[in-house]
Specification:
- By secondary structure, the protein is an alpha/beta fold.
- The chain has a domain of 151 residues: Isoleucyl-tRNA Synthetase, Domain 1.
- The chain has 17 helices and 16 strands.
- A hairpin with a 4-residue loop joins strand 5 and strand 6.
- It binds 5'-O-[(L-methionyl)-sulphamoyl]adenosine.
């Protein structure tokens, strides 16, 4: 199965913050999960480098927009590397491959009769890079709180109004296209409210992709930006309509566009309409996650409370940051970031629950079983715990791949560790050592096998620690696949294990 997943491409007007880390980590968890589930994955991220917002921030910094984009785009690539994000490609909208592809996309929309020339007069917000209707404004500002300015200029328009019914039919026929449900309802009522044609070119500044055949215009930054999902696959080359495609284009349509709730409209209304107009297939799913606040406050540059994800990863650990962001709030909801909550999660879930289980089990095996996977003869309680781990794994798979309920998935994994910790307390293998060494061996075996399953389930979330755990259980690299979670691939007694090492240290305040 092919699985094409994308992050939004990030604006280079500023350095990355927690929101960028969040979307990227969520995509990475899904990409890694799909890979160990056996899918052929293409995972794309990148930077959105055109438009007035970038042009203005460059000007403020006293740099050309290109120099500014070159400088800032690096921070995003560094962030992805830092967070162990496994993107296969990183596209920049100033690259020739993108600009050419975006122009080809424009030409197809034009050839198919969906572009016409006229004049735009109305409100525009540079911060949001979005047009607003008079009626949408609240006390002279955009509904997002951003400043707006009056714009009057010659402009090309896209016949968005022609897609109202087609979009509604599409949402109806594809109930999983927009998630979560609240966003889906929001989008449907927006479209039902009526769609106006969309201005898709600007003439009052220069920093953009030139409109083919009329270079006084640059493409509207969102049309330029959205087409990255195609141009990264080499569009127009290899794209056939109707499918099948060839080469990288085989990954189209995207399986998942992961976005923040602020940009759902662009991805769930404009983008599918552009694609319909270009006779291309519509992505399978758009998931809009919520926004983080910082210790209860809205995050904004002007408040000076942005959170630097690199600093957090340095202080708490990459796996720990990934875990916290995925565990703390149900994916799709808004959430609040606080150091206390982060420390509490690290200590209770990672150090005390999973870390402690691994520590107790592996050090007992090292001391009492000659450092080898012990022999076993199961009793009912052993079978029960192992069966529980197996059932949970199946649920975890469903929650991640089908629902993107990452926090729920981690909760399910945590339950396996909790049960195993209860089991260890009930069985007291340290006492069995003298009274019944064979039973001790079996108990330690059950615990080690639970840890193997926990390790496999944790791989997408905390890849460093999970791999370390699987190393300590001598699980071969090629056996780190999700379908190996079952009993058929259980640990083999007698297998020599390396010396145990701590997995998740406690964070001491
Ligand atoms: N360039 C556009 C996307 C174009 S995609 C074809 C853009 N870029 S962005 O850099 O402003 O935002 C990138 C992502 O960060 C968005 O998904 C946005 O929702 C997310 N976040 C920005 N602030 C956030 C929080 N405070 N919390 C969570 N995510 C947030 O939009």
């Amino acid at each position: 199965m092919k699985f094409y997943i994308t992050t939004p491409i990030y604006y280079v007007n500023d350095k990355p913050h927690i929101g960028h880390a969040y979307t990227s980590i969520a995509c990475d968890v899904l990409a890694r999960f799909a890979r160990i589930d056996g899918a052929e994955v293409y995972f794309l991220s990148g930077t959105d480098e055109h438009g007035q917002k970038v042009e203005q921030s460059a000007e403020k910094a006293g740099m050309s927009p290109q120099e500014w984009a070159d400088k800032n785009s690096v921070y995003f690539r560094e962030l992805l590397a830092k967070l162990n994000i496994t993107n296969d490609d990183f596209i920049r909208t100033t690259e020739p491959r993108h600009k050419q592809g975006a122009q080809e996309f424009w030409k197809v929309l034009q050839k198919n009769g969906f572009i016409y020339e006229s004049k735009y007069s109305g409100w525009y917000s540079v911060r949001d890079e979005a047009y607003y209707q008079e009626a949408e404004l609240i006390e002279g500002k955009a509904p997002t709180g951003a400043d707006v300015e009056w714009v009057e200029e010659p402009s090309y328009f896209f016949k968005l109004s022609a897609f109202e019914d087609k979009l509604l039919e599409y949402y109806e026929a594809n109930p999983n296209f927009i998630a979560p449900e609240t966003r889906r309802n929001e989008v449907i009522s927006f479209v039902k409210g009526g769609l106006k044609d969309l201005s898709i070119s600007r003439t009052t500044f220069k920093w953009g992709v030139p409109v083919p055949g009329d270079e006084k215009h640059v493409m509207y930054v969102w049309l330029d930006a959205l087409s990255n999902y195609l141009t990264a696959l080499g569009y127009p080359f290899g794209f056939k309509s109707p499918a099948p495609n060839t080469g990288l284009a085989d990954f189209w349509p995207a399986s998942m566009h992961m976005v923040g709730k602020d940009i759902i409209r662009f991805h769930a209304v404009y983008w599918p309409a552009f694609l319909m107009a270009a006779d291309l297939e519509i992505p399978k799913r758009v998931f809009a996650h919520g926004w983080w606040t910082n210790e209860g406050q809205k995050i904004s540059k002007s408040l000076g409370n942005t959170i630097d994800p690199v600093g957090l990863a340095d202080e708490f650990g990459v796996d720990q940051l990934r875990y916290f962001l995925m565990r703390e709030i149900p994916f799709g909801n808004d959430g609040d970031f606080s150091r206390d909550k982060m420390i509490a999660r690290i200590n209770s879930d990672l150090a005390n629950n999973i870390g402690n289980l691994a520590q107790r089990t592996l050090s007992m095996i090292a001391k009492n079983c000659d450092g080898k996977v012990p022999q076993h003869a199961f009793v009912d309680s052993d079978k029960k715990l192992l069966a529980f781990a197996f059932v949970q794994a199946d649920k975890v798979r469903y929650e991640v791949l089908y629902e993107q309920h990452f926090s729920r998935a981690l909760e399910l994994i945590g339950q396996v560790a909790s049960r195993a910790n209860e089991y260890i307390d009930a069985m007291q293998p340290w006492n069995l050592k003298k009274t019944d060494p064979e039973r001790m061996a079996a108990v330690l075996y059950v615990l080690a096998e639970c840890l193997r399953r926990i390790g496999l389930m944790m791989l997408p979330f905390t890849p460093e620690a999970a791999n370390k755990l699987l190393d300590q259980l001598a699980v071969a690299e090629d056996a780190r696949m999700f379908h190996r979670v079952g009993a058929g691939n259980a640990l083999k007694p007698g297998t020599e294990l390396p010396a145990p090492e701590g997995l998740f240290p406690r964070f001491e305040v």
